[in-house]
Design goal:
The N terminus is likely disordered. Helices cover 81% and strands 0% of the residues. The protein has a single domain, classed as Up-down Bundle (Methane Monooxygenase Hydroxylase, Chain G, domain 1). The chain is mainly alpha-helical.
Length: 204
């Protein structure tokens, strides 16, 4: 049998994915208005701490377990990359607070929607992993990859418009960094997908 029933590792990975989704929804809500960037950063940080706790629990479980349902490096890799996605949103929220940015633009909103969409795909993939339905994970991996490619194009478009239409160099510097941080979050989502894809190839 490839999997154990109700395996603690899959339960913790699923909890991490659901926490990531919760962060992404809060992130999107705030990116659409930026009314209180300080409170936004604090709320994201609380959920980021929860994600850290889940990662530590999973690492502790790995240290105490001799036989794991899938390769240890896959379990650890997924845990770390899920945490990286949340860390990316926390970093972006902190930077928005530092820069006192209170007026979101269309690119902030579009990136936030892509991140929520990627989070949805990650949650769906983790649910299938927990349910032992490996073959069905591939479509979610593919969609995450598509979203990352779309984010690459959005970054290029956003920077092009920024350089063409904004004259204040300080605003350019701030927004350029925020755009790049947002795109980096989708890169981290793709890192999760890449581990899942490698896992699928080894167990096909």
């Amino acid at each position: 049998m490839f999997f154990k029933k109700k395996d603690v590792f899959f339960e913790l990975l699923m909890q991490s994915a659901l926490n990531l989704k919760e962060v992404s929804l809060l992130f999107q809500e705030q990116m659409n208005n930026l009314v209180d960037s300080c409170n936004f950063a604090e709320n994201i940080k609380l959920l980021e701490n929860k994600g850290d706790e889940l990662t530590h629990k999973l690492i502790n479980a790995l240290e105490k377990t001799f036989i794991t349902p899938i390769e240890r490096e896959d379990i650890l890799g997924l845990a770390i990359k899920l945490d990286d996605v949340v860390d990316g949103m926390e970093e972006c929220a902190d930077r928005l607070d530092l820069y006192c940015m209170t007026e979101p633009d269309d690119y902030f909103k579009l990136f936030a929607q892509m991140i929520v969409n990627s989070a949805d795909e990650i949650v769906a993939a983790m649910a299938l992993l927990e349910q032992k339905k490996l073959k069905e994970i591939q479509r979610h991996v593919h969609r995450i990859n598509e979203l990352e490619n779309e984010a690459d194009q959005l970054l290029r478009e956003g920077l092009l418009i920024l350089f063409q239409e904004v004259k204040d160099p300080i605003i350019i510097i701030k927004k350029k960094e925020i755009y790049e941080l947002l795109e980096k979050i989708t890169d981290s989502c793709e890192d999760v997908a890449n581990i899942l894809e490698a896992l699928l190839m080894r167990n096909s």
